[in-house]
């Protein structure tokens, strides 16, 4: 079973093999965590993403990490669901983001991966439900990844994730 750690901070500063970004379908960068990762990795990340696009909601694709500080070698791009009140299969799609992120990490040989809170920003997914889905999906995934670090940007997300991880 994969170990899960929760930290509060900047995902671009994580000491892991791969970071996951909450991308849009173009994989060319956006706002929030995706924008931060793209700024830190440099312009080549958007160029590489454009060659792989589109990436549909629930899927994940990988690029090199370019200018991110080693040991980060890969950026795994996943597209979360836009919250529509729970009527558009959002929970299944969000779970798929975490599952596919781990599958791609396995394909890359990554043993340590940092995930943000996918879809809780401009996509509007309710943070408490998103946190539960993230933790449950990671815990139940068949993966060779040894460590998943859930990186919370704010204190509220951090507290939600800690409460779920600490109940194990």
Describe the structure.
This protein is an alpha/beta fold and 168 residues long. The chain has a single domain, classed as Leucine Aminopeptidase, subunit E, domain 1. 38% of the residues lie in helices and 20% in strands. It has five helices and six strands, in the order E-E-H-H-E-E-H-E-H-E-H. A six-stranded mixed beta sheet has the order 1-6-5-2-4-3, with helices on both faces. Helix 4 links the parallel strand 5 and strand 6. Helix 3 packs across helix 4 and helix 4 runs parallel beside helix 5. The protein starts with a strand and ends with a helix. Pfam families: Macro. InterPro entries: Macro_dom (IPR002589), Macro_dom-like (IPR043472).
Index terms:
single chain, 168 residues, alpha/beta, globular, O-acetyl-ADP-ribose deacetylase (Regulator of RNase III), Macro_dom-like
Furnish the topology, listing elements before pairings.
Blueprint: E1 3-8, E2 18-23, H1 32-41, H2 43-52, E3 60-64, E4 74-79, H3 90-108, E5 112-115, H4 127-140, E6 147-152, H5 155-165
Parallel strand pairs: 1-6, 2-4, 2-5, 5-6
Antiparallel strand pairs: 3-4
Sketch the topology as an H/E string, one letter per element: EEHHEEHEHEH
CATH uppermost class: Alpha Beta
What percent of residues adopt helix (DSSP H or I)? 25-40%
Distance between the termini: 12 Å
Instruction: Give a short account of the largest sheet.
Output: 6 strands, mixed
**What general form does the structure show?**
globular
CATH architecture: 3-Layer(aba) Sandwich
Q: Which secondary-structure class do the elements indicate?
A: alpha/beta
From the 3D structure, determine the CATH topology: Leucine Aminopeptidase, subunit E, domain 1
């Amino acid at each position: 079973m994969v170990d899960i750690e929760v930290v509060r901070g900047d995902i671009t500063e994580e000491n892991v093999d791969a970071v996951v970004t909450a991308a849009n379908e173009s994989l060319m960068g956006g706002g929030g965590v995706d924008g931060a990762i793209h700024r830190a990795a440099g312009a080549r990340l958007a160029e590489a993403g454009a060659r792989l696009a589109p990436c549909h909601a629930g899927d994940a694709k990988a690029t090199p990490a370019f200018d991110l500080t080693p040991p980060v070698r890969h950026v795994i791009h996943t597209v979360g669901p836009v919250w529509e009140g729970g009527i558009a299969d959002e929970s299944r799609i969000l779970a798929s983001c975490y599952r596919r992120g781990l599958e791609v990490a396995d394909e890359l040989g990554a043993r340590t991966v940092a995930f943000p809170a996918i879809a809780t920003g401009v996509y509007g997914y309710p943070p408490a439900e998103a946190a539960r889905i993230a933790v449950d999906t990671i815990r139940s995934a068949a993966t060779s990844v040894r460590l998943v670090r859930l990186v919370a940007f704010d204190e509220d997300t951090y507290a939600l994730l800690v409460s779920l991880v600490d109940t194990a």
